[in-house]
């Protein structure tokens, strides 16, 4: 994730006024001009700010203000990258941020606890602006039966880096874990597929094909056209282009089958689907792209990872991780057209 930045003000003048008021009202470093002191404090990495807030009241107020984020963007003209790691259930153990530029760790507070649930896993997290989102997952609920089977979660939490606190948002329409998720344009979050699945039970889980879009400004979820088939454990990403943008869903596992009618096993999905959006209307429909891997190339499809390429916008790298091996679907299809469309 990228170091958080606050959402823009409604006008440039209002942001300037706030910055002036914050800087002028606080004595940050005695003996230095206030604008110089503000610039010095703005250079402090986020991973160190929590400890320095206890220095004095003026530092605590300044390091918790939106002015700090704006000064970093304006003066540094660059963003450092932070890695967020969730050791386990974020309501039981603190997530951690790793600052690669300064080789420093910073703990985050835990998400709001629920006395009836525990063991959350298979959730999805993503960062947008000055916020970190934690969506869905699989968990154990003491009120469910049987209690030894995981249940999907519809919860949505958001961490504000400015206030250093979590808040609960509108829950998803459908509870889900192990689903595709991506941040779309116009402050939207897209989720697709998923179900209920836990690492202890390799194949004993549910699948679904529902798709939802979250409007950050309105704090509401809207149901979209469903996936062409059931899919869970999939990966999702958003590709933006000038006229059309696409929400890609690939990999995962579809229908379940049994061996000898007893042992459940997964049917792994070799293909990908994309919902093509018209940027002017905001509507889209699903289109099947085709298999990522040739028949016989790989019987079991491993974990799929998508890496954004900042130098080539709209052309992320797609890789499959299987043990110590890394595969790439080059030569099978490219982002934007299926294999049949390439040969045609």
UniProtKB/TrEMBL annotation:
Domain F-box: 30-69
Top-level taxon of origin: Eukaryota
Protein name: F-box domain-containing protein
Lineage, top ranks: Eukaryota, Viridiplantae, Streptophyta, Embryophyta, Tracheophyta
One of the Pfam families matching this protein, by short name: Kelch_1
